[in-house]
Amino acid sequence: MSAQAHHRFVSRLTRETLALVLAGGRGSRLYELTQWRAKPAVYFGGKFRIIDFPLSNCVNSGINRIGILTQYKAHSLIRHLTAGWGHVLSPELGGFVEILPASQRTSDDWYAGTADAIYQNLDILRERAPQYVLVLSGDHIYKMDYGPMIAAHVERGADMTVSCLEVPLADARGFGVMSVDESNRVVAFNEKPADPQPVPGRTDVALASMGNYVFNAEFLFSQLEADAANPESSHDFGKDIIPSIIESRKVYAYPFRDLETGKQGYWRDVGTVDAFWEANLELASVTPELNMYDLDWPIRTYQVQLPPAKFVFDEDDRRGVALNSLVSGGCVISGATVRHSVLFSNVRVHEHALVEDSVVLPNTQIGAGARIRRAVLDRGCVIPPGMVIGEDPEADRARFRVTDAGVILVVPEMLGLAHTHGA
């Protein structure tokens, strides 16, 4: 198939695909960062939310029909989606970004699992009449063209295709792990196994599910109905749906690779405070693995209109500088120093303050003379003048949350401040 013909093939398939983004997760391992917001609504990368990455992947892949299933503390997520994504796709051309909150459409229960979330919206989905359904996790950071995955699904005559990563065996215990044959057909699937099976021909890595699936639509709908009728099921794709079909139906793994280099694609689960901190600070390196400056694959988001970042004072003992850092609009670095950090919108760092190796979420104030190291400061924190965070572990543990890796999480309530509902 020529490149031009393949592009037309993929374009036709993406037009016939409905994407469903599972965005109801709590993200409990992020602790206080998800006290007032769902994990997909957590900030990332200086100006984005996690949900922006799978949604941008859909739009950039040519998928213009998207449903987003929400549940846990969804207010800030829904507000973000309404403000930033409602106008991206044209209804006149058949496109939409539609929010599908848990609304007890089929019973008196809320969404009981990933499969149940979609089952409870079957009437809506059937009305849309898609040929294929792309089910996506809404809480991971990556850039992926879904078109080739859908094309591979169709070319193989698959009933279901699972996108996957190669992960070290020791790390695979935290994933759904697939055993495959030489053609990448899935022959076994185990959710968080104690003894993961390596990929054929390797001894050091296993194939882990990314939580992204392609289904033939009618096949998916029939499986969801059968699962809903099973009182023994937990109504989850990884625990129930996939294991129940791999022996009788064609289920294939789709290894996630960069289409240009052939190397495994960038993917991060920022589901712990340490992982969140590390993935944000990776972006401050000279050539980060995640290129957010790629004009051919823009990451879209909602952002308020803000003035440019500002750095003021140029005196020997009072100079506003930021080195190896990301600094977003509305920030003012006033006679202070910021090193290897990520500052989100409207952060103010006052004179003689020092911020190092830290992630500072929007609308945060850092008082004069304060010193902040290896910290995550949640939205709306006000750090008093002279406060020191990240130098005395015992003092930090008495006031804040300190991870096993020594990252300090600070939220407004820990500073005696009332929560502001701009989560």
Automatic annotation (TrEMBL):
Residues 307-410 form the Glucose-1-phosphate adenylyltransferase/Bifunctional protein GlmU-like C-terminal hexapeptide domain. GO terms for biological process: glycogen biosynthetic process. Transmembrane segments: none annotated. Pathway: Glycan biosynthesis; glycogen biosynthesis. It is an enzyme of class 2 (transferase). Residues 19-284 form the Nucleotidyl transferase domain. It catalyses: alpha-D-glucose 1-phosphate + ATP + H(+) = ADP-alpha-D-glucose + diphosphate. The keyword Nucleotide-binding applies. Alpha-D-glucose 1-phosphate binds at residues 111, 176, 191-192, 209. It comes from the Bacteria. InterPro entries: ADP-Glc_PPase (IPR011831), ADP_Glu_pyroP_CS (IPR005836), GlgC_bac (IPR023049), GlmU/GlgC-like_hexapep (IPR056818), NTP_transferase_dom (IPR005835), Nucleotide-diphossugar_trans (IPR029044), Trimer_LpxA-like_sf (IPR011004). It holds the Pfam family NTP_transferase. Keywords: ATP-binding, Carbohydrate metabolism, Glycogen biosynthesis, Glycogen metabolism, Nucleotide-binding, Nucleotidyltransferase, Transferase. Belongs to the bacterial/plant glucose-1-phosphate adenylyltransferase family. Homotetramer. This is Glucose-1-phosphate adenylyltransferase. It comes from Plasticicumulans lactativorans. The gene is glgC.
